[in-house]
Amino acid sequence: xxxxxxxxxxxxxxxxxxxxxxxxxxxxxxxxxxxxxxxxxxxxxxxxxxxxxxxxxxxxxxxxxxxxxxxxxxxxxxxxxxxxxxxxxxxxxxxxxxxxxxxxxxxxxxxxxxxxxxxxxxxxxxxxxxxxxxxxxxxxxxxxxxxxxxxxxxxxxxxxxxxxxxxxxxxxxxxxxxxxxxxxxxxxxxxxxxxxxxxxxxxxxxxxxxxxxxxxxxxxxxxxxxxxxxxxxxxxxxxxxxxxxxxxxxxxxxxxxxxxxxxxxxxxxxxxxxxxxxxxxxxxxxxxxxxxxxxxxxxxxxxxxxxxxxxxxxxxxxxxxxxxxxxxxxxxxxxxxxxxxxxxxxxxxxxxxxxxxxxxxxxxxxxxxxxxxxxxxxxxxxxxxxxxxxxxxxxxxxxxxxxxxxxxxxxxxxxxxxxxxxxxxxxxxxxxxxxxxxxxxxxxxxxxxxxxxxxxxxxxxxxxxxxxxxxxxxxxxxxxxxxxxxxxxxxxxxxxxxxxxxxxxxxxxxxxxxxxxxxxxxxxxxxxxxxxxxxxxxxxxxxxxxxxxxxxxxxxxxxxxxxxxxxxxxxxxxxxxxxxxxxxx
Length: 585
What we know:
The protein has a four-stranded antiparallel sheet, with helices on both faces. By secondary structure, it is an alpha+beta fold. It is globular, with a radius of gyration of 30 Å. It contains 21 helices and 13 strands. The model is unreliable at 1-19 and 363-373 (pLDDT under 50). Helix 6 (161-193) packs across helix 7, helix 6 crosses helix 11 and helix 9 (258-272) runs parallel beside helix 14.
């Protein structure tokens, strides 16, 4: 891994800080101020030994403290540009032997070879900046470098509402599934630790394995495993109790996997509109000491954004969790999903604090004593944006998910700057975006909104009344004025349609007494949306949800919120039976 310019483990602490450039090799070690390390072997480059040594020395100087590259991600990006530059030089008829041999012709050819895209401009700028650090570079070549390459502006746009909903639903489904899994196994672990499980029972044995998992990062593993088998194979009796040897049966019971951690990072960006790197490196928020007394958790969220020149922008936000729709609820759920992983890394002496902590695949585990920045045992603290890009590409999500989600939140939803100035927000985010152009035309926007509202009103066909009629038949969702005249069954016969279709029936009457039930049904359908596959939810529940959305707009937020809080245990039980198919009049 390390020979390809990726993260490499090195001992922690100032006394173990490695030399940036090894004296007898062409290996450069970069340990950034976050504690992450990467190793780059310049002997891999297809150029002369002299050029390899010169490039390694320039690279090492930039990686050294004060050299300008404060993050290993910066050095890794420049490493990719150097590899591209080396391959280009090999293809030249008169390949330069060392940096003094670089001519303006070489440089102009390199500039013309760069693609007319952001990546091409970036690699051109990075190589020019690096080579200028060598005093042996000729004046003529420096003059050629002074001719700037035309900067290509990114064409990234904010997501359309449909695309943004798809991204959020996908991320919510992945993370919600993980949260429910961890929550259920946490209950079993707590029951075992409190002695509430029958000794020797399968539940007790599962709890025992979960306790080992929480303390060591793995379920009990075989010590003497057969040749050819994974060294991370669980003990046979444990695998039998847990239902299998795979990750979903073992370590995933208490920890997030990489994909689930990526889903959480995407949710944090779509919720708060902060920078991708900020989310990936966010410390675990702490609730204020007196916030639990009144039933509302208030989290202090510390945000840090890197800026050009090595400067940092610090920001603090207070987010309150007072219910499912509050801004702090996602923080509460993130802390719950990572509680065991964070407890493990804290106990193991991790030198940093991260909200997102995830369990690596068994084959990637590090020894517990191998502590280097973001790696400790089988855990990674934080994420890289590359992790999220790989995850989103694998799921087929459109575009650069983190950047486009951030732009969508700040341009379309918040309509204000986040972690940048108003000028930057206006010039970089708002002005180039087509959706912002559309929003600038109030007449069109108002007409489109009116058209959407009109279409929504046609979905809900039940009649709103002030009180139930004494002759109406009560159903799970409304009162029925004509039980034998249903448009969904043959005339003259009793209606056999689902009670979910009552809101689409002109014979239905919805009185204030039905409002609590319907608001609870709407909330239940929203919860199903977060855990079911999109196609399944759309086929089974989307139409009923759309009609309830229309009802919510008709009643208004004040009436709707009051009805939701007024739902009784009877209302909730009735809706649960309806969704489970067990309700019967």
